[in-house]
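Sorry, can you check?
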Amino acid sequence: MVAVDFDLKFTYVLAGWEGPAHDALILADALERNDGFVVPAGKFYLVDAGYAVRPGFLPPYRATCYHLTEFGERVPQNKMELFNLRHSSLRITVERAFAAFKNRWRIVDNKPHHPYPSQVKIVLACCILHNWIL
């Protein structure tokens, strides 16, 4: 799990969970750790529809147009669609950060044959270097 700022930097990284783990479980783990993820007062993080509504986290409205391609040229029809359109537009920042990260650090996308503890350290090291380079 990562949190990303608008400069495409990782502001929080929790490496070590397996790919198929549910996002909500990973977030709960991050929030419960002593040195875990903290949402600053008055701030919010965008999350995808797999997360429940909870203080500090804003998922999109469900069963409402969300992806930019779903809107095409049409304007949002209500407040929920407008929120989802803006949510989707901002979420592209996260996708850009991951694209830059994976393009720069091919080792994290190549399914390396390193022991699991080493894989976690590799991901963390690449995240640190990613932020340092930016």
Observations:
- The chain has a mean pLDDT of 90.
- The longest strand covers residues 10-13.
- Residues 2-133 form one domain.
